[in-house]
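Hello again, I could really use a second opinion on something today. For a while now I've been wondering how a particular protein folds. Please have a think about how the structure follows from the sequence. Here's the protein in full, and shout if anything looks odd to you:

***
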Amino acid sequence: LPTDGEIASLLCDKVDILLAGSLDLPSFRNTSQLLTHYRDALLNDLLRDNYGHYTGNADLLAEAAEKLPDASLSVLIPAEDLANAVRLHFGNELGSHKGGDAYAYLKSAKVYTTALDPWEASVEIRVGRIEETAHTYRLFFRLAKGEEVSDEYLACFVKREDGSVYFRSLQSS
């Protein structure tokens, strides 16, 4: 398929969710591995894309204040939103909620929070080729940051009947 067409853009948007500025992307083959490596990146993507909804949201803050009266919170991402993102982008259910390095999980309020501003990925996705099968797309790409370029990655995506796709796996090729 064309490396600069609509499908390429759709697949690159999915890869962009995982980027945090590094050229090294850990491989995953299932949701458990995915969340071990990318929980913070997924939460960052939610916060970056919905900043106004997750910061200063009076309803979320009031609910959290009832359950955590001693906490001073300004950023809250409902755990359900992460579960929905995993279902949408990775076609699977989220097994359990827990904190990462940048985002803490507050079990009593069922929310994630952070003191950090969302980060923008400072790397470029360079598509090498895209292969299509009856039920999947395979995206071969490299990441670039300035003069530095990564090894090639292979991202596999499953096609849905509605034309959308979800991530199945990522590996260095």
Notes: Helices lie at 6-16, 31-49, 51-54, 58-67, 79-90. The longest strand covers residues 136-145. Strands lie at 77-78, 104-106, 111-113, 124-132, 136-145, 148-149, 153-159, 165-172.
